[in-house]
Design a protein that fits this description.
The complex is a heterodimer of chains A (122) and B (376).
Chain A: H1 3-6, E1 23-31, H2 38-45, H3 50-59, H4 77-89, E2 90-98, E3 105-109, E4 112-113
Antiparallel strand pairs in A: 1-2, 2-3, 3-4
Chain B: E1 17-19, E2 30-32, E3 39-45, E4 51-62, E5 65-71, E6 77-82, H1 84-109, H2 129-143, E7 156-160, H3 166-175, E8 178-183, H4 186-198, E9 205-209, E10 222-228, H5 237-247, E11 248-261, H6 273-286, H7 294-303, E12 307-313, H8 315-318, H9 321-329, H10 332-340, H11 343-350, H12 352-360, E13 364-372
Parallel strand pairs in B: 7-8, 7-10, 8-9, 10-11
Antiparallel strand pairs in B: 1-6, 2-5, 3-4, 3-6, 4-5, 11-13, 12-13
Helix pairs in contact in B: 6-12, 9-12
Classes of the chains: A alpha+beta (122), B alpha/beta (376).
């Protein structure tokens, strides 16, 4: 699971008011090379929850992203590369996503999160 | 007025209906709920599910069966509606069915797990089916007026009930978009991701094990919400459609291609008993909950104030499909694969003639329903 996906996922357990962002429990991180596409990054920048991305990438062991961001940073190639790396090249292979309110863990196995709710969470 | 009677209902684990007169009703129904006591709501229902009278029942699990008994204040048509425990059972059944069957399907038919689109009354050979399945995707996109224009084409797509990701990969490639797929089957999700990786699409498509009735996404994420032949599996159509609308971005398009039963005429309250019986048999084999009509979907979309709602009946365009599937099952490869697969797959295969019967009787319809989420 890459952080682009993580930035879209939230916990929708019954009663949870804010299930985003999910915390990450890391067991295994894998880095996979992805072709750099500047247009895509510019497009995604406006839609990404930046703080969630920064926090998630730090949990995954990548500390290069700035705490805050603004669109002028997109002019910097260095920034774009870091953004690209954090968003697309870091994969959680094994671990869990954790609901920020209830602490409930959604397992991630072989890179695939299992977001199914139990009967009493619906 | 109090009377009691005992009845036995049909074996569809999802809804059984008996017709008894008013009074105290006691009936026993067979279902499959794993190890739990289940409470059952007994509702008096018309075809559009308006509740008139409510009763309570309890179930006792013995081994794998649950015996329900229910009492109600009275009324004509009684139907057991099973609660969350049964939805979980259905979902487990769906997951297991696809965990078991996906491999054999892929082996014979490839990575698209949906009907092909054919010219009406055409005769097709086995080699035409793959391109017919692709045509189905293209026809659906065309029906929904999805633009190829770089400024307007979809960028974020969700494939609800993605199977092994055939549509996800096709759409991601076609529009150079990102696609998220969700499925109840862990086997399918893994296979979908592996296929994406082998096709160089690993960075464009991602798959999750998730529930279409509780999509794990924040609101408004997707320009295109795609449900290709997964709606049939949704036990709660209202929730299903609500979720599709919730995750659609403002201005985004929703495309639902699904099996429905025929629309009811104004004078009809429900399908005939024979029609229901046929559908129940199909439900049982394919892990489907109760069917609804195309008109029901349109009403749901209207109730959510979605715009540009369009619907069409494509039953004539899919007619060659089930005979072709049956033919493929009867080949040496088909038979040996089935024998190596599990009972769920075999049972599903044996139910295929029922689909043909349903289509021939005008009971089963292959429908497309599309709409747009308002911009503001």
């Amino acid at each position: 699971m890459r952080l682009l996906t993580h930035n879209m996922l939230s916990s929708n357990i019954k009663g949870v008011t804010n299930g985003f962002p999910l915390l990450i429990e890391v067991e295994k991180v894998v880095e996979k090379q992805v072709d750099f596409n500047e247009d895509f990054l510019r497009n995604m920048f406006a839609k990404i929850e930046w703080k969630a991305l920064v926090e998630a990438s730090r949990t995954m062991g990548y500390t290069e992203l700035p705490e805050n961001s603004e669109s002028s940073m997109l002019n910097s190639d260095e920034f774009l590369r870091k953004f690209h790396h954090a968003l697309l090249e870091l994969h959680l292979e094994e671990g869990a996503l954790v609901c920020p309110e209830t602490g409930r863990k959604f397992p991630v196995n072989k890179g695939i999160p299992n977001m199914l709710l139990h009967e009493d969470e619906v | 007025m109090v009377s009691s009677c005992i009845g036995v209902s049909s074996t569809c684990s999802f809804g059984t209906s008996l017709q008894w007169g008013p009074g105290l009703h006691t009936f026993i129904s067979r279902g499959h709920i794993i190890g739990r006591n289940a409470s059952v709501q007994v509702l008096n229902r018309t075809h559009n599910n308006s509740r008139k009278d409510i009763g309570i029942g309890i179930g006792i699990g013995i081994g794998k069966r649950v015996y329900f008994t229910a009492v109600s204040g009275g009324g004509r048509r009684m139907q057991t509606v099973v609660n969350a425990a049964a939805v979980e059972t259905l979902q487990k059944g769906i997951a297991e069915f696809y965990d078991e069957s996906s491999g054999i399907w892929e082996n014979i038919w490839g990575d698209h797990m949906h009907h092909g689109f054919y010219e009406p009354d055409s005769s097709v050979s086995l080699s035409d089916h793959r391109s017919a399945q692709i045509r189905m995707i293209e026809e659906a996109l065309r029906f929904a007026s999805i633009s190829d224009d770089p400024m307007q084409k979809p960028r974020q797509i969700v494939d609800v009930g993605c199977g092994i990701g055939g549509s996800s990969r096709y759409l991601a490639r076609k529009y150079e978009a990102r696609c998220q797929g969700i499925t109840l089957s862990p086997v399918q999700a893994q296979r979908a991701q592996a296929l994406a990786a082998s096709q160089g699409l690993d960075d464009k498509v991602s798959f999750q094990v998730a529930d279409a009735l509780n999509q794990p996404f924040e609101d408004g994420q997707f320009n295109l919400v795609w449900s290709m032949e997964s709606g049939e599996h949704m036990p709660d159509k209202t929730k299903f459609v609500n979720e599709l609308a919730r995750v659609a971005a403002p201005g985004g398009t929703i495309i639902i291609v699904t099996w429905c039963h025929r629309d009811l005429s104004p004078s009809e309250e429900s399908l005939s008993p024979e029609e229901k019986e046929l559908l129940n048999k199909i439900c049982d084999a394919f892990f489907l909950p109760a069917w609804c009509s195309t008109a029901d979907y349109v009403k749901l979309l209207e109730s959510l104030s979605l715009q540009d709602i369009k619907a069409a009946d494509w039953s004539e365009n899919v007619a060659p499909f089930w005979p072709a599937v049956i033919k493929s099952a009867l080949t040496w490869k088909g038979i040996t694969s089935l024998l190596r697969s599990g009972w769920k797959t075999i049972k599903g295969a044996l139910a295929m003639p029922l689909m043909i019967e349903g289509y021939n009787k005008g009971l089963i319809k292959f429908a497309i329903i599309t709409c747009r989420k308002p911009v503001s």
